[in-house]
Amino acid sequence: MRVLIALTLGSALLTGCQIQHEKPTSAQIEVIGMKAKQEADAHAERKLMAWAEQDMPVAQRELAILYQARPEQRADALKLFEQAARGGDTEAPFQLGEMLRVGVLGVPAAPAASAPWYEQAAKHKHAKAALALGLLYKNGNGVKRDDAIAAHWLAAAAELGNAHAMFLLSNIYNQGLGVPQDLAKARAMLEEAAEHEYPPALQELAMTVELGDAHSPKDALRASHLMKEASEHRRNNWNRF
């Protein structure tokens, strides 16, 4: 229903913008982007192209997202994401980082080149970018492994509500990797990740409370509930990011 409303609004915006010749808002551009993507609407795509040529970062990003799905235009998507990122868009540097880190047909993987773009997005409180940057440093993927920097960015992602980062931080504090070892904080982060319904955290917490530890007594009933919840979320294809 929401998509239908957005697409209906997109049709109205196409007409309205033509009549008024006013600069569209970010929300209006994103609606047109959705219309171009969902309906393969050529008119909407041309509108995005016109706005992108006027150096509107949101339009550049939306057009890049459209081009990502087309192997022959992925190089153009890369350029548009960079233009949008340099123009101040906060989503574009994350998307650019993703393309560079993973690599796709027409765009070779370059994890080292992805790091500064992730950092740009992360500094603007983009949780997924902070997580991705933390993982780069944690794994030494394209950058020199640095546990302290990894912990910093994972903490930033956790503060923004990212459950995957919370779970990783739990292990980091448990082992004292790049931070002073803090078993109480490790347990708190594990509990928080579980509260956010992150399956690996639910499973690990279930195994912990089943045996009991210094932070809580043995609780077989809670362990059973946690394990069941973990299984349900895995079946529902829980998004790790």
In short:
This protein is an all-alpha fold and 241 residues long. It folds into 2 domains: 1-110; 125-241, Alpha Horseshoe (Serine Threonine Protein Phosphatase 5, Tetratricopeptide repeat). It has helices at residues 2-20, 26-39, 42-53, 57-68, 74-86, 92-102, 111-122, 127-139, 147-159, 163-175, 183-195, 199-211, 220-235.
If you had to describe this structure to a student in words, what would you say it looks like?
This protein is 72% helix and 0% strand. The protein is an all-alpha fold. It has two domains: 1-110; 125-241, Alpha Horseshoe (Serine Threonine Protein Phosphatase 5, Tetratricopeptide repeat), CATH 1.25.40. The two termini are 25 Å apart. 43% of the residues are buried.
Superfamily (CATH H level) name of the largest domain: Tetratricopeptide repeat domain
Describe the largest sheet: none
What would you report as the Rg, rounded to the nearest angstrom? Answer: 22 Å
Ends distance: 25 Å
Strand content: under 5%
Q: How would you spell out the order of helices and strands?
A: HHHHHHHHHHHHH
Number of helices: 13
In the CATH scheme, the class of the largest domain would be: Mainly Alpha
Number of self-contained structural domains: 2
